[in-house]
Amino acid sequence: MGAACAAGGLALSDASAEPALAAAACAAAVFAALRAPLLGALGPALILLGFFVGAARLAAIDVPAAKVRDEEHVTIRAHLLTRPRPSEFGATAEIRAAGGKLGGVRLLLRIPRWSRLPPGTDVGAELAVAGPLRAVEDESGAAASSDESSFDFAAYLRRRGIAGELLLDRARATGRRRAGVGGVLDRMRRRAERAVAAGMPAGDAALLRGMVLGQDEAVTETVREDFRASGLAHLLAVSGQNVMLLAALALPFLAIAGLGPRARGLALLCLIAAYVPLAGAGPSLQRAGVMGVAGIAAMTLSRPASRWYALLLAVVVTLLINPRAIGDPGWQLSFAAVVGILTLAPPLQRFLARTLAAATGIGAGTAAGASPERLTRGLTEGAAITIAATLTTAPLLAHHFDSVPVAGLPANLLALPAVAPAMWLGMVKIGLGQLAAAVPPADALAQLLGPLARIPVAYLATLAERFADQPGGQLALPFRAPAAVLAAYVILAAGAAAAGRVGRTLGPRSNEAGAWWRRRPRTQRLAAVLVALAGLALVAARLASGPAPPDSLTVRFLDVGQGDATLIQHPDGTAVLFDGGPPEAGTARLLRRAGVRRLTLVVATHASRDHHGGLPEVLSRFPVDLLLDGGDGTRDPGFRAVLAEAARHGVRRVRAAAPMTIKAGAITVAVLSPPPRPPGPPPEDPNPRAVVAVVSARGLDLLLSADAESDALLPLDLPDVDAMKVPHHGSADPGLPQVLERVRPEVAAIEVGPNTYGHPTASTLATLARARVPTYRTDRDGTVTMSIDDGEATVETEH
After folding, report:
1. In this structure, are residues 626 and 654 in contact, taking their beta carbons and an 8 Å threshold?
2. Which end of the chain has fewer CB atoms surrounding its CB within 10 Å, N or C?
3. What whole-number distance in Å separates Cα of residue 706 and Cα of residue 689?
4. Is 787 helix (H, G, I), strand (E, B) or coil?
5. Cα dihedral value 270, 271, 277, 283, nearest 10
């Protein structure tokens, strides 16, 4: 009870003194009513003590913020604390100033797209960085980020102890590195990263690093969104599950080594002490580390461990480190999951065990410790923990993210068999990476384990992908007000209590039914179980297969934000994709939702991030027969990554040079531009020489011109078409009226998203309106789908 009072005071320390005084008064009244005079004196005192200690801690955390002067241009030496995380506008990373007036201050480094860190820079490296500072505004002001979102970015920065932002102008490596304990951890982390990735493809290695080291910055946005939408995002954030699995992995080896209980406990404490900072020491991992240490200490000292006391101790410790952690969604979800596991999992496990025993006979009359008994206990415990954590985190997910992943429960249940093997193999690879410094053959062993580790990781990625795409997988449930969250938990508690009463009432009847079932001949029971398993397998196969391709010729102008991606699908299964949007658009996911299983042709119209950025992921996720290369000899690194990915997967590549006709199944692609490029370097502006093509199938002619505007289009022999994509996201184009007069489209689509360029311009929209061309926009209409049946075209919009 004392720990709960102290935790309450710490939780209130970021507010004014009045709530803390009110909480202390309420506690005194409650304990007085319970006739507990000692608690009546101690509880309020601990609440107030927690409040003042937390306030002092916050004051210390906020001292560096006073050193950050808004708009001041500085040049400082700083250590890189995190890898750059890509975003739509560049990348962000965390740094800590290594000296000067900002010495020790933690900053968010904003790296624009036109800038980058020196090659080979990794965590712990010292950089000389220059740029203007931006202060973190207080909660009453606007968020420090320029992102237009209801997300309070300033509060997020404060929770992480970040005092301000530095907008990078230039960066230079000094050749020095972080020293001390931080430097030791940097070296250990580098060895761990290399070992985890050894022997695995880049995508799978990024996932495994996220699972065992919490480093998910290399995981693509599409994959990250798959894990979020499927309810499996917790697998990419190290948590209590990691600490539990680490202990379970280490204990047999420690026992084989002949260590006694106290020595084993000490070894486990050392492992946890090394693993928590190695994996980032986030709030959920801090909680897991404290709980693990408390449990191991109790086991070592032969004292009964109170899981509730360990949980409260974890709350106190994490809030002592940073009282603002209580506002972090990850912190809240982590503790909510543990509370659910402590309260709901035990009765759920007993219910599932009784049900399984009644159905199979295993567990009823089976010798204690027998293999079937251990197996069924493991299955029922895993399922009970998953269900309990899913239920108790749902209200908080609705509060913070306005939706609940309904697919999360079955996805997590199906993920159970793969999580432990993936984690254990990743942790073994980490251990081998540390050994490699003294025992070089350990590196080779980590390499050999790569293909084995890839199996469970690839299974989890496929599971996330399939469940993310299920219709109705996300339930919109915006619990904006805290009162709504509280009401949801009250309803959840009432439902659990009611379920318990019903279970106790039906207990005798279920026992009778179980006894009747066990008296059936074994062959009948086996046949029934096999039929049930076959039914589940059919359902799983249906879920895994994804949506079917369309039955009619379909053109989709995909909503990829400010970028281009156009998909043409023929009923014979042929699929052609023009461009892939920017990297963060998740085009691969949109293709899966459209029923694409294979791409006959991919056209990279020109070198522009908002056109080619999403193609490497598309090429890695789908079989592709042919890539039409419209790069025009560009040296752009992003476009060259497209070509490298195509080569890696053995995709045939053809350079685009008009005139050219490509047959992709029943779809014909007539390339009208660009003509072969004369010798010399590629042009600085790739737009006029972007691929211009007419796609024809089943009586439909579609003009796709990427970013090539009228000055590039009018010299071409343009035919009449049924539909067109308006060039360059609807930019101002004086020659557009002549283009429309030549091609006379019946439908036009503008692929555009939120932007600062003014696309689509008023003049372009007015030109289309004067030409009486029905025009659709992906920024307002979402994905625009045109279907052709019996020569008739119908257009549907997503919004």
Report:
1. yes
2. C
3. 10
4. strand
5. -100
Q: Which of 161, 33, 178, 44 has the alpha carbon at shortest distance from 98? A: 178
pLDDT, position 661: 95
The rounded distance, in Å, linking the Cα atoms of 630 and 442 is 45
Return the amino acid letter for 679. Answer: P
Query: Would you call 132 exposed, middle or buried from its count of C-beta atoms within 10 A (0-12, 13-18, 19+)?
Result: middle
Tallying the residues shown for the chain, one arrives at 799
Of 49-53, 269-273, 532-536, give the lowest mean pLDDT range: 532-536
pLDDT at 574 (0 to 100):
94
What is the SS3 assignment for 306-336?
A: CHHHHHHHHHHHHHHHCHHHHHCHHHHHHHH
Give pLDDT tens digits for 130-139. Answer: 999 998 865 4
Q: 3-class DSSP state for residue 30?
A: helix
First-last CA distance in the chain: 52
- The pLDDT value given to residue 144: 42
Angle at 277 between CA 274 and CA 280, to 5 degrees: 140
Element (H, E) at 433: helix 408-435
DSSP 233: G
Query: What DSSP string runs through 665-684?
Result: TTEEEEEEEPPPPPSSSPPS
Q: List pLDDT tens digits, range 541-561.
A: 666 566 778 889 999 999 999
Residue 284 contacts residue 240 (beta carbons within 8 Å): yes
CB atoms within 10 A of CB 661: 12
What angle do helix axes 371-401 and 345-360 make, rounded to 10 degrees? 140
Q: How far apart are CA 566 and CA 551, in angstroms?
A: 18
pLDDT tens readout for residues 352-375: 877 776 666 555 544 444 455 666
The model carries a pTM of 0.75
Tell me if 392 sits within 8 A of 336, measured CB to CB. Answer: yes
Structure tokens at 309: 């006391």
* Stretch 512-540: mean pLDDT: 72
Tell me how far apart the alpha carbons of residues 451 and 680 are, in angstroms, rounded to a whole number. Answer: 45
CA distance 179 to 192: 19
What average pLDDT is seen over the chain? 84
Contact between 170 and 176 under an 8 Å Cβ cutoff? The reply is no
